Amino acid sequence: MIKRFGLQPLSFSLESSKEMVLLSIIAQSFFQPFSLDDNLLVILTALTSGTGVGFNRALLFLKEGERLQARMWLGPRSPEEAQAIWSMLSTPGLGYAEIVEHNRELVERMMETLRPKLKLLSYNLDAPEVKIPALAAKNQEIILVEEAREEPLVDDNFRNFVEVDSFLCLPLVAKNEIMGEIVVDNGITHAPITNKDIELASLCALLAGNYVYTTHLYKKVLEMEKMAALGEMAAFISHQLRNPIVTIGGFTSQLLHRPCDQEKCQRNLAIILQETKHLEDIIFKISHFLKITIKELRPIDVRPILQSIIERPDLKLKAENKRLILRQAEELPKILCDPVYFEEAIVNLLDNALDVTPEGGYVYIRAFPQNRKWLRLTIKDSGPGLDEKMREKIFTPFFSTKENGTGLGLLFVKRVMEMCAGKIEVQSKPGHGTLFKLYFKISEEKVKP
Predict the structure, then answer these.
(1) How confident is the model at residue 91 (pLDDT cuts 50, 70, 90)?
(2) Which of 25, 203, 254, 298 has the most CB atoms around it within 10 Å of its CB?
(3) Could you tell me the CATH number of the domain that includes residue 345?
(4) pLDDT (tens digit, 9 = 90+) per residue, 42-70?
(5) What spatial distance separates the first Cα and last Cα of the chain, rounded to whole Å?
(6) Which residues form the domain of 63?
């Protein structure tokens, strides 16, 4: 006997344990393209959902410099609003995505009036005396406050904001570094906060701390990659432009300061013009690469495009004493891409393949349906091939095996494939040529031969 189950529960069940619901909410967040704020909203949702931990309200603080600053509030403003929200959230069949979307709208609506009040909830963690709620973050400990009106350690601004006598402070910590804090309460139902509630809430706080830490780490990595790319671009531009500029400068100086006969002057001017065109070509390739934009994918017929590509005069000139062979299936489906960028990407690959292929060698280009979802287009040359280190670098900006290459051609192809929701793979070994495999998504519209 075979039983089948979905990967994720589609809706919440009141019969499920709080632990299972909490795990479901958190796990499903990894399947969503959420921002940091959305992921933190997922945590607040888990804390305040009636089928989750079940607190009434949650207040999020994030660390900004050395200050703890209130950022987001989730919860009803009155018992009547609470009843309406909980009735909606307990609707049979209501899923996780709908609950998060509802909470996002609730937060945005409430923040319009709460934002000025939240700005006042800002605490210096380096101050000699730190009061609750910031004390929990500074000491990196969970603090349960009861009878808050009689507790001198509670900040007056915060006490007036939450207007409850009992609340729980949950520091958000990652790598022994404070990321923020979440404060939860039962200001509507006035239900007591139990040890079980604290255990489940602490798990949410642990996940929230790691969300914030991972996001900060990712931003640092992106900044490092940007700086590395800028450094590579500066080195590339310096290397590529130096020789033409020096040549132009030298021959211009000769024309200005040394008399020359007409033949020599013409030669000098021809060299200057040649180097100027070289500079223009470099600048065009860089700017063209940076401007790749595909606003909308549309079905395109690759057959006539591929046929016109192999008939291009520039490629036919390169293919002299070589064999450029196109093979296509008798019936090809249309693919989703942009026809201009598709052609440029294929020409780029064929241009490289013909450059490395020796006289008498061959370059194959084939197009066949891989399956119902993908069309596979391959380009194979009989060049010297690439070793493992070179294969790892071929899509790196400004890396080129050509003496005068810009190192942007293959990266351009990769970006086009990504923007067309496709894939690109490369296989190569020294002495065995190089094979590029391009996978394009198939459109529903068929093309007849």
Answers:
(1) low
(2) 25
(3) 3.30.565.10
(4) 777 777 765 546 788 889 999 988 899 99
(5) 47
(6) 18-216
Looking at 181, 216, 251, the residue that finishes a domain is: 216
Residues 78 and 227 in one domain: no
Structure tokens at 40: 């933190």
Does the pTM surpass 0.70? The reply is no
Domains in the chain, number: 3
* In a shared domain, residues 243 and 172: no
Average pLDDT, the chain: 79
Our measurement of the distance from residue 217's CA atom to the centroid of its chain's CA atoms, rounded to an integer in Å, reads 14
**What mean pLDDT do residues 201-228 have?**
80
- Residue environment code for 164-198, b if the CB has 16+ CB neighbours within 10 A, otherwise e: bbbbbbbbbbbeeebbbbbbbbbbbeeeebeeebe
| Secondary structure of 101-155 as H, E, C letters | HHHHHHHHHHHHHHHHHHHHCEEECCCCCCCECHHHHHHCCCEEECCHHHCCCEC
